[in-house]
Amino acid sequence: MSPSQIKLIVEKSSGIEDIAIFSRKRYIVDVRVCYYELCRLFDPKYTQDRTASILGRNHATVLSALKNFKNLYGVIYNNGEPAFLANGVFNECKDTIKRLMSLGTANQFYLGVDNKKTIFQIGDNRVAVFKRAYLAKTVCKLLNETIL
Which of the two ends of the chain, N or C, has the fewest CB atoms closer than 10 A to its terminal CB? Predict the structure, then answer.
């Protein structure tokens, strides 16, 4: 999966219009870190420069962010506040990308709604269920435009 596809999925899942915005707000920074880690995991042509260039950053930014991610992901402070604010975004995006990659490639896509869940089907028998309709529509658009 390409970095631009991962960026789109992260933006839709987090609710941030553009994660490339120059901001130091903690939530936005944590969502950007999610993007870097997801690219490391799912981009077959991964390099830190390639990942950083999509957001207008450099490889040192990615290196630092990934180091912090390993130290903060899943950690909860004594007062109950998570050390990393985008845990849910990371988990949702990771699951979505895994589902997409397991679907493979095909020519036919179907999008329907059943009991407030969006059904996404490729071919005859492979189905993925998304709880958020806008995320499924984005995924459908991505798959129609590119081949995974």
Answer: C
